[in-house]
Amino acid sequence: MAVVAGETLPDIGEKPWHPPADMPLGAAFFVRGDFPWLGHYFGSRRLASALSPGIGGIVSWGGRAPAKIAARIARFRRLRHWHLEDGFLRSMGLGKSGAVPLSIVIDDLGLPVDAGRPSRLERLIEGAGEAGEFGRTIRDQIVLNKLSKYNHLPHRSPGIERTGKRRILMVDQVVGDVSVGRALGSKASFEKMLADGLASGAQCIIRTHPDVMAGLRKGYLTDGVAKGDAVLLDDAVSVASILDVVDEVWTVSSQFGFDALLRGIPVRCYAAPFYAGWGVTEDHFGVYTKATLAGRRTKRRTVDQIAAAAFSLYPTYRDPKDWREIDVFRAIELIVAQQKATA
Fold this sequence. Notes:
Blueprint: E1 2-4, E2 7-9, E3 25-27, H1 29-34, E4 48-49, E5 57-61, H2 65-77, E6 80-86, E7 103-107, H3 120-126, H4 132-144, E8 167-171, H5 178-182, H6 187-199, E9 203-207, H7 210-213, E10 230-233, H8 239-243, E11 248-251, H9 256-262, E12 267-269, E13 282-283, H10 287-293, H11 303-313, E14 315-318, E15 325-326, H12 328-342
Parallel strand pairs: 3-4, 3-5, 5-6, 8-9, 8-11, 9-10, 11-12, 12-13
Antiparallel strand pairs: 1-2, 6-7, 7-14, 14-15
Helix pairs in contact: 4-11
């Protein structure tokens, strides 16, 4: 048993939906090439080709075309299939910069961003009734240490002109972001969010994506800064620093909304990310989204219960130094230590 802040906490639990420890696994070429560390999450065994004979299952990363092809191959070969993604507390640096993740999620049902079908995360949140106190301990440590999914940006107050109006942070996302469509959102979701914000009389702050500011991608809300009382926030500061100076967060499907919930900030969702639909967000779902979620996400859940599922029950954490399995609290310690070492 682990002891954190004087409390006895559960050990790392077995995740029975994961691939069996002795099962040979296959993956697409790009997965094996782009994520050379991935085998360490599966008993340090080498991942074979998805077409190799003798494998018992296939793993795929994310939700783009290669993942869809891998899923088709698994169905054709009558093999089991697991969806992989970064965990919600990933690392200090960005994956694009080569930072190896401290956590990934392994899901036998679907992607955590996919509201169109059940995921293992959704089922864990549904069953997290007894995990609230454990989730609060996790939440307290994440908020105390000002952490988010990525943790490379400095903590300093962003340069936003203060007005007497309440501040709504509207989170932009890049056009083509898989999580938008999978969360049952669209361009119209962003247009509705912006229109509602501008009509509210609040100071609307648009937090754009770094790739958009660099001219590498296009954002859904980029053009909205020319309309009404909307301010573009492009300061390279941490998520925690931004959330320190806003009153509400409106989003389509970004994890930014979950970061806000952890800090007690009201969140409005214009699609169905994993943390929406449980009674902790103000949900502006369309008819199709409501119909798709009908019969699912039926229980009211607290932020602490969702945090327990998202940060502990669902992901797997490993220390990249020796690839031993660790828990969320040790992952927090490693990120904080990295931050201090580079300060």
